[in-house]
Specification:
With 205 residues, this protein is of the alpha/beta class. Helix content is 21%, strand content 40%. The protein has four helices and 15 strands. Helix 1 runs antiparallel to helix 2.
Length: 205
């Protein structure tokens, strides 16, 4: 079974980005790696990184620390049908969603991250889902032709698929974009490949 080991973001200033992610989300290179960007990109890159947390206080805490570190709020944290969440954009351009299924706090913020999810917005949902199954991933949850989540195994990062336009609408951004995704998925249990939407996977050492 293919398991995601880490994600690599291409950023203009890796040192500044490392400080941002440590201050904003308490992240280090065990899940997120950074390298200098070399390819141009414009608009929506077709993905978001989502941190699932225990309660609304955690969403508020992470949104506050992210904005203090330099992030821009795209969607202020608010209740929704599915829980409570907000969306911010890091200084390097990556979009992050902070969310919880809980609608009420049962205590103060814990700063705990329950799940780290890479959510890809794809053009052909059925074909991409089938592509990933053929490349060694196992579907854990699936809701029709709208959303699919894959089994993360004992890896630190989950993969999920959503239709690109629906994902952009959910995030509050325009769906158009071109150039590099500025993202590489590093995985064990699979060879390097590029998926149907141009997302690159590398074999983790």
């Amino acid at each position: 079974m293919a398991i995601i080991d880490t994600l690599t973001l291409d950023v203009a200033d890796p040192e500044a980005a490392a400080r941002f992610y440590a201050d904003a989300f308490d992240l280090d290179d065990t899940r997120l790696r950074l390298r200098p960007a070399t390819e141009p990109t414009t608009g929506f890159r077709g993905f978001t990184l989502a941190l699932t947390v225990p309660r609304p206080a955690d969403v508020d805490s992470f949104v506050a620390s992210a904005t203090a570190a330099g992030a821009t709020v795209i969607k202020p944290a608010a209740k929704s049908l599915w829980g409570y969440g907000g969306v911010v954009q890091a200084p390097d351009g990556a979009i992050w969603k902070l969310a919880t299924s809980a609608k009420k706090d049962t205590g103060p913020a814990t700063r705990r991250i329950d799940d780290f999810v890479l959510l890809l917005g794809v053009a052909d949902f059925a074909a991409t889902k089938r592509f990933y199954v053929e490349h060694g991933l196992t579907v854990a949850k699936s809701f029709g032709r709208t959303y699919a989540e894959f089994d993360a195994g004992d890896g630190p990062v989950k993969l999920a698929l959503y239709r690109r336009r629906a994902l952009a609408k959910d995030l509050g951004v325009a769906p158009d974009g071109s150039g590099s995704h500025r993202l590489t998925v590093n995985a064990v249990g699979t060879a390097a490949f590029t998926d149907l939407d141009g997302f690159e996977w590398a074999a983790a050492a």
